[in-house]
Specification:
Number of strands: 10
Distance between the termini: 36 Å
Mean pLDDT: 83
Largest sheet: 6 strands, antiparallel
Strand content: over 45%
Number of helices: 1
Number of domains: 1
Order of helices and strands: HEEEEEEEEEE
Helix content: 10-25%
Radius of gyration: 21 Å
């Protein structure tokens, strides 16, 4: 019995570990996983004084790009607890050396939008006919589509932002 409990616990734990992975990113370089590229670049930098200490302030652009050659769809799951009209997080970027001072960010998320498609359904008026309706079928990233967001971070003087990305892996995507 103990072996069965241990085996089921370790199976559950290993499945949980494979559902997300954290990777360190380099500036102006992408990390590619499952046809999706993850990366960041800096669009603005300046030096700031915060409470008598010097810091460097960076505007960091975070992005996720689908370069797989096809649409990446995140379908609804049976028993899904998240509301269908909410965006789904597909990646979370963390700045490991950000201070968070002056109400600046330490992390940022990339969210997908709902995906709508034409669906063929039975027509209520005629049982032998069908009609097409526009229905939400999940969330998706189109081929070649880039989703991006910008965060502002403050890091110690002389340092560049050290970014890491948590990749949310959806089965079947």
């Amino acid at each position: 019995m103990r072996k069965l409990i241990f085996l089921s616990f370790s199976t559950f734990f290993s499945a949980f570990l494979h559902s997300q992975q954290v990777v360190d990113l380099e500036e102006n370089a992408t990390y590619k996983y499952n046809g999706i590229e993850y990366g960041f670049y800096i669009s603005n930098e300046q030096s700031k004084e915060v409470k008598g200490e010097d810091y460097d302030r960076f505007e960091v652009n975070l992005f996720v790009r689908n370069s797989s050659g096809c649409v990446k769809v995140i379908p609804f799951k049976v028993g899904m607890t998240q509301s269908t009209d909410e965006d789904i997080t597909i990646a979370e970027f963390m700045c490991r050396n950000a201070t968070g001072k002056r109400l600046t960010a330490k992390s940022g998320k990339i969210l997908t939008k709902p995906w709508y498609t034409l669906v063929k359904v039975n027509d209520e008026k005629a049982t032998d006919k069908y009609k097409f309706i526009n229905a939400e079928a999940g969330h998706a990233i189109g081929n070649g589509q880039t989703i991006k967001t910008k965060i502002i971070v403050i890091v110690p003087k002389g340092e560049r932002p050290k970014m890491a990305c948590t990749i949310v892996d959806f089965p079947g995507m």
